[in-house]
Amino acid sequence: MIPFELAAIFARLQLPAERAAGACALAAWAGVRQALVFGKDDEIGMFLPAPGLVRTLRDGRRWQQFLEQCSSDGERCAQMPDPDDGAPVQAFGLACAAGQAIFVFLDGRPDGQQCRALLALAPLLGAQLAVEHAAHGCRRPLGGGARQQPPRQRRQ
């Protein structure tokens, strides 16, 4: 059974403007110091922080490797650089089966029942994040931002 408190937290996580508060509430609910949420951007094939949350992480390559391992294994524990100060911190990642959303918990981990409840709701958030990333991708200029110049007229 999904606790009402978690359903309310997920309602906040669905909205970018409420997502930071939702992530704080998720951390408190799980009994951890901090909760991070990542969504898969299919256009670039990477997991990105959910819009409305921290946009950059220290040692991004290491974070991408961790997130890819979470996605393939379902869950993963590792020492990772803290998003705030870069100090090593214990991270527990939990990926939904659809592979579109990953939750990362710092300095602790939810218990088994909490993980099952999270995984039951995760596909809803994953779908929302996929739509947001796709919409953001549609606003990117084609060709990496380079504009195609019209052909020059030859002088005669």
Q: Calculate the terminal CA-CA distance, rounded to whole Å.
A: 79 Å
Number of helices: 4
Q: Roughly what is the average pLDDT, rounded to an integer?
A: 86
Q: Looking across the biggest beta sheet, what order are the strands in?
A: 2-1-5-4-3
What is the overall shape?
globular
Give me the secondary-structure category. alpha+beta
Summarize the structure.
This protein has 156 residues and is an alpha+beta fold. It has helices at residues 4-13, 19-30, 60-73, 112-139; strands at residues 34-41, 46-49, 75-81, 88-95, 101-106.
Task: Give an account of the 3D structure.
- The chain has 156 residues and is α+β, with helices and mostly antiparallel strands.
- It has one domain (4-139): Beta-Lactamase.
- It is built from four helices and five strands.
- The protein has a five-stranded antiparallel sheet.
- Strand 1 (34-41) and strand 2 (46-49) form a beta hairpin.
- The longest helix is centred in the last third of the chain and has 28 residues, at 112-139.
Structural descriptors:
single chain, 156 residues, alpha+beta, Beta-Lactamase, 5-stranded antiparallel beta sheet, 4 helices, 5 strands, 41% helix, globular
